[in-house]
Amino acid sequence: MGVKITKIIDSRCPSNVTCIWAGNVIVDYEVYKDGNFLETRKITIENNSEDRTMIDAAQQLKAYSVAPYPRTSMRKIPQEDYVVNLVWERIQKD
How many domains does the chain have? Predict the structure, then answer.
């Protein structure tokens, strides 16, 4: 299994501003198996969300963070500058 990130929508509150809502990041991605396209999916990554599972199979692919974090002094972050930190976790089968 693999993924290709196709779009990131970043509505997080800039780190140097106090906001009522922390915001989130929406990641659009495509899922592939053995190099073949399966489907398009979307995940919302929020500060308080524990479920960040992008793929759930024999292993889980989870999105842990997105960088860079916006600041008011920054220009709009280009799509190609984003980095999504992903982790594969092996699922324990009983």
Answer: 1
The per-residue pLDDT for range 19-43, each reduced to its tens digit, is: 888 888 989 999 898 889 998 989 8
Token pair for 61:
């692919």
Which SS3 state, helix, strand or coil, does residue 3 take? strand
Return the closest-CA partner of residue 63 out of 81, 47, 43, 86.
86
Show Cβ contacts of residue 15 under 8 Å, excluding neighbours closer than 6 positions.
69, 70, 71
Confidence of residue 9 (pLDDT cuts 50, 70, 90): very high
Q: Distance (Å, rounded) from C-alpha 66 to C-alpha 57?
A: 23
